[in-house]
Amino acid sequence: MASSNIFYKDGIEVNIKVKDEYRRRGIATVLASKLILKCLEENKKISWDAANLWSVGLAKKLGFECNSTYNIYKFI
Length: 76
Known about the structure:
This protein has a 3-stranded mixed sheet with strand order 1-2-3. The chain has helices at 27-41, 53-61; strands at residues 2-8, 11-16, 45-47. It is globular, with a radius of gyration of 13 Å. By secondary structure, the protein is an alpha+beta fold. Strand 2, helix 1 and strand 3 form a beta-alpha-beta unit.
């Protein structure tokens, strides 16, 4: 799934989900690329808020650059 649950005036925040059994097959790359291309066609800004190292790696692979870091806390 490639989507955004955060929209703002000029753009979106990327959200990519792939089921565990389908990971490491390039699916996230294809989904993210398609979403990014659609946003570029519509002149929307794209933000990538990476919550884990896999997301960081995918973002870098697609040309994003890290401009800040922060802590994430999960309650399970």
